[in-house]
Amino acid sequence: MSIFRLAHLSDLHLPPPDGAFGWRDLPSKRLLSRIAWRRKRREHQPEVLASIIADIKAHAPDHIAITGDLTNYASPAEYEAARLWLEALGPAQAITVSPGNHDALVEARGGEPFAAWTPWLGDDGALAFPQVRVRDGVALFNLCSAVPTAPHLATGRLGSAQLERLDALLGDAAYRDAFRVLLIHHPPTPGAVSKRKALEDQDALRALLARHGADLILHGHAHEATVSSAPGPDGAMIPVLGVPSASAMGERGHPAARWHGVEIDRRADGAVEVKVVARGLDPKTGEPSELGRYVLIQAGRRP
Questions:
Q1: Parent domain of 36
Q2: CATH code, domain carrying 167
Q3: Before 130, cis peptide (omega within 30)?
Q4: Comparing C-alpha atoms, which of 228, 67, 47 is closest to residue 144?
C-alpha cells in the first residue's frame, strides 16, 4: 500500500485587509485584537508564510491540514481574504481547515461565520462539525473548537452536540479500518497551554477517545512544536502533535515558522508506521529546511 503524506500547518494569522476593522468594532473584542496585532504583525510575516507554502508545494503532499487562526479579528473582510488565499493554495478537496479561536473572536453578525470556507471544511457542503473526509484509507475527523469568548480569553469548546456526533462517528464501523486523524485547533492535553487558552471540555473529549480511540491528533494554538498523548482504549496511547505558527519570524519567544510532513505508511499486512518530518525556517539562512525527522508510530502499533 502507498504512503499517504499529510502536511500540517497552523496559526497563519494572515494580515488583515483594508476594511477588516471599522467603527462598529470599537466596543467589541476586536478592538483588543487590533491593539494586539500592532505588536504581533512584526512577528507574523506574509513573506514567511509564503516561503513555508512554497516549501509545502515543493514536497507535493496528498493533503494539507490547517488547524486554525487564519484570521485575527474574525471580520467578514478577513473571511473573504482567507477564502481567496485558500483558493490560491490548491483544490479544496485536498485541503481541510479546522477553525481557530481568532476565527471566532466575536459573535457573527448574522449568517454562519465560516460559510465562505465551506469547501475546505468537508465534502458534503455542510457547516456542522465534525466532518469526515476519507482519503486513501485515512479518515480526517475535522472538529471545531472555535467559539467567541470574553476579553482576554482564548479558550475553546467543542460542545455537547459536536461531542455526541463525534462519539457516533468514531464508533461507526465504516471507519474501523481507516487510519483516524483528528484535526482540532486547541490542544486536547492538560497543561499544553494556560487555563485561559485551554479547551474547556477536553475531559469529555478525552473520555470519548478512551472509549473509541483514534490514531493521531493534530492541533495548533500553542505556537509550539509539541508531542504528547491522550489515553485510548485498553491502555493504548494516541499521539498528539502540535505545530508552531506557519508565519512566525521566531522573535517573540516562540519558534520560527514550521510545518510537519506526516507520512502514514499503511502496509499490506495491516501494520501502520507514521513518520514526521519537521521543516521550517533555518535560523542561519532564513530559508525552509529540514529540522528533523522521527518515527511517531512504530509499525504494528495502533491505538
A1: 3-297
A2: 3.60.21.10
A3: yes
A4: 67
